[in-house]
Design brief:
The structure is a single chain. This protein is α+β, with helices and mostly antiparallel strands. Among the domains are: 46 residues, no CATH class; 187 residues, Nucleotidyltransferase, domain 5 (2-Layer Sandwich); 75 residues, SH3 type barrels (Roll). β14 and β15 form a beta hairpin. α3 runs parallel beside α9. The radius of gyration is 26 Å and the shape is globular. The chain starts with a strand and ends with a strand.
């Protein structure tokens, strides 16, 4: 749990049991419900020993993993885990809808408006709104964590895939991680993501996977990414040196799909890299030491510690480390939900208004998205319900809990826990199983146990 001194300055996080004892003894008060933050009433930062923590960030396309941990001599101990859910697809869809409305206005018989050209310039480092959203929400949470915990440094994956390491045909000079234990990890991780961690020929998952040359190397095939795929041991041995056209001659649809997917460019990887570089530059503006690493090194760290694959554990394993001793058993899921819309009218499919929303968003002191607790003494909704509220002008609210939506709760039974901040919160257990990735003894084979 995050702890502040009596002046609101961050102290080292504490165990939940200690936070409960402090609250029960009256020595602390609750500042925030989710994430849980308390403030001590009888201690200042000068009277405490503050060791400090570090923050690890694993950026992703739909989710970003954030981990708060202590680090001593290369040994890390996880203190807090957060998985941030982005709303990039929703932003993209809304922008597409807005563009459709704009095109419609241009074709209508309206008053003349002179065409506008060259008035929408893009600044240096411009990102699409759906991509910029990832950077801004991640920076927002890093800023929050620096207010709740004494953050000393930030570790971030600056690139997901090293496109220089993905190039074939010559050795990489000056890249030390390509020599020794890390050699080939960038290519292997990229292929696991590209092919969905399943066998390209039979679709088997959860079995050891090998790298397979689509055009056999013995027949002149290269080691380029466009000639590599994933295959289970049975399919790899059955194909052997047979050309893929002969091996799949009875499955023309599968053959066409594999050949088409194999030619996929690195465009997606480049887009993710662009976002991560923008995030790294934004993190540097915080004034904290920012340490960058690649996704290949993160996976190598996980393979050594035996940690399963997840965004939060990737964030815990970013950068240089010796080992990870512990990690949190629960992960907070913060999903970006937005802060509502300005439009106060709902339309039908023809564009005519069918429903008008109230002009004020706050009803009986509550707004949609607030985190509340409702204690209903009787009726069909008897019990205690905790979740996000959807207000109605009648005073009969709906509350969305982790078990579902409870409708028709009177405002008199509702108590505010936390104002809406644009996120919906849930919690789930962290994965505890062990995933082992081994480098094959012959050639660039990859075995993914439990993937």
């Amino acid at each position: 749990m995050f702890v502040l001194d009596k002046h609101g300055r961050p102290l080292d996080p504490c165990h939940p049991a200690r936070a409960r004892r402090l609250l029960a003894a009256g020595r602390a008060v609750v500042i925030r419900h989710t994430p849980f933050v308390i403030r001590l009433k009888d201690r200042t930062r000068a009277e405490s020993t503050v060791q400090g923590v570090a923050v690890g960030v694993d950026p992703g396309s739909r989710h970003t993993g954030i981990a708060v941990f202590t680090e001593h001599g290369g040994r890390r101990a996880g203190k807090y885990s957060l998985r941030l859910g982005h709303r990039g697809p929703a932003i993209r869809d809304k922008l597409a809808t807005r563009a459709a409305y704009r095109r419609g206005r241009r074709s209508r018989n309206l008053r003349y408006r002179a065409p506008r050209f060259l008035n929408r310039t893009k600044s240096t480092g411009w990102l699409a709104p759906s991509l910029r959203h990832r950077v801004e929400t991640t920076m927002s949470w890093v800023g929050r964590l620096t207010r709740w915990a004494p953050v000393r440094a930030v570790h971030v994956e600056r690139v997901c895939f090293d496109t220089h390491a993905l190039s074939a045909g010559r050795p990489l000079e000056g890249a030390e991680y390509q020599r020794g234990a890390l050699a080939g990890y960038e290519v292997r991780e990229y292929l696991l993501v590209k092919w969905g961690r399943i066998c390209a020929y039979c679709g088997a998952s959860g079995v050891p996977l090998n790298l397979d040359h689509i055009h056999p190397r013995s027949r002149g095939g290269s080691d380029r990414l466009s000639n590599l795929t994933l295959a289970c041991i049975a399919c790899n041995q059955a194909k052997n040196t047979t050309p893929i056209g002969e091996f799949l001659k009875t499955k023309p649809a599968l053959l066409a799909r594999i050949l088409a997917k194999a030619k996929t460019s690195l465009r997606d990887a480049a887009a993710v890299n662009a976002t991560r570089w923008a995030l790294w530059r934004a993190l540097e503006t915080t004034g904290l030491p920012v340490h960058a690493a690649s996704g290949g090194r993160t996976k190598w760290n996980r393979s050594r510690t035996g940690a399963p694959k997840s965004h939060t554990l990737d964030a815990l394993h970013v950068g240089d480390l010796e080992t990870v001793t512990t990690w949190p058993s629960m992960v907070l899921i913060a999903r970006a939900t937005g802060r509502g819309v300005y439009c106060r009218t709902r339309t039908d499919r023809y564009g005519f208004p069918r429903l008008r929303l109230p002009r004020t968003k706050r009803v009986k002191g509550f707004a949609t998205g607030d985190l509340v607790r409702a204690a209903v003494p009787s009726g069909r909704n008897t019990g205690t319900h905790i979740g996000r509220v959807a207000v109605r002008s009648t005073g009969s609210f709906n509350i969305t809990t982790r078990h579902g939506t409870v409708q028709g709760i009177g405002h008199r039974h509702v108590r505010l826990l936390q104002r809406a901040d644009g996120y919906g919160y849930t919690a789930e257990p962290e994965a505890r199983h062990r995933a082992t990735f081994l480098i094959g003894s012959e050639g660039p084979g990859l075995h993914a146990e439990g993937s």
